[in-house]
From TrEMBL:
Annotated signal peptide: none
Pathway in which this enzyme or protein is active: Cofactor biosynthesis; biotin biosynthesis
The keyword Nucleotidyltransferase belongs to this UniProt entry's keyword annotation: no
Name of the protein described by the UniProt record: Malonyl-[acyl-carrier protein] O-methyltransferase
Gene of this entry: bioC
Length: 264
């Protein structure tokens, strides 16, 4: 299978590393999505090894450690800046690992539970990711995933399309493809939920500042070169105004929650 790479991992890691100090203050939506994922975890499991993939500032890694005090809990992230930030702020019992989710540094069948909230949308090779999950999960082990679908930020994507032809918003993979890749790797689905959340903003700059603060702004190879000029931003604001509703400017997020297990 040929994988068309849209962005460099170094650029993704640098963007999230820079965002580490501002992430938590701007990440209410990410908190809510991760909390819903956390609530999907079955209550009758007692994992010995837990990995939070794309752990960011470590909020959910700590929650996992508190929920499973007997377990060795590890936060794994590509961005060194996120790992430094998390290591300085959380329980000493947590372990932090710098690695790529498509190439996990764990032995075969060594992990009981993977948790990953809002990191999978940064993967451009789902078969590699799910093959790694299948390889490293203990038989009967679980993975809980939250990720984003193609409708996410469509207002911003379409507004930019009307301004220039460049990619300004990440392209998100449809849920059917995510589910098919997981099944292909040999994982069985236990739960699948899809929903849309619409955020509201008074002004477009509130949304763009938020995306920058969480490190999720544009790092695609096909992005417009150089800085975005004033004229273009003015056109973008005018273009986005077409979506304005009485309660503000909407920004749609299409969210998937997925619980899978490796057959025992
Ligand atoms: C939107 S943040 C989510 C952080 C945290 N899970 C949360 O819910 O607050 C996405 C995280 O995924 C990490 N990430 C992106 N690509 C990755 C990869 N290939 N391997 C591991 N982590 C990655 C980023 O560095 C970032 O910390």
């Amino acid at each position: 299978m040929t994988v068309k790479v849209q962005r460099s991992k170094l650029a993704v890691a640098e963007s999230f590393s820079r965002a580490a100090p501002s992430y938590d203050s701007a990440a209410q939506l990410q908190r809510d999505i991760g909390t819903e994922l956390f609530n999907l975890l079955p209550s009758n499991v007692a994992p010995q090894t837990v990995v939070d993939i794309g752990s960011g500032t470590g909020f959910f890694s700590e929650k996992l450690q508190l929920a499973y005090p007997q377990a060795l809990v590890c936060g794994l992230d590509l961005a060194q800046g996120m790992l430094h930030y998390a290591r300085a702020r959380h329980e000493k019992s947590l372990t932090w690992v710098g690695a790529d989710m498509e190439c996990l540094p764990f032995a075969d069948a060594s992990i009981n539970l993977f948790f990953s909230s809002l990191a999978l949308q940064w993967s451009e090779d789902l078969p590699a990711f799910f093959a790694e999950i299948h390889r490293t999960l203990y038989p009967g082990g679980l993975i809980a995933l939250a990720t984003l679908g193609p409708n996410t930020l469509f207002e911003l994507r379409d507004s930019w399309q009307r301004v220039d032809g460049f990619t300004h918003v990440n392209q998100f993979i449809h849920g059917d493809k995510v589910r098919a890749a997981a099944a292909q790797a040999g994982l069985r689905e236990r739960c699948w939920i899809s929903a849309e959340k619409i955020m509201r903003y008074d002004a477009l700059r509130e949304l763009t500042h938020e995306l920058k603060a969480i490190g999720a702004h544009n790092v695609n190879r096909a992005r417009a070169p150089g800085l975005t000029g004033r004229e273009k931003l003015k056109k973008l604001r005018a273009s986005y105004e077409l979506y304005r509703q009485p309660d503000g400017l909407p920004a749609t997020y299409e969210i998937y929650w997925l619980l899978l297990h490796k057959p025992g």
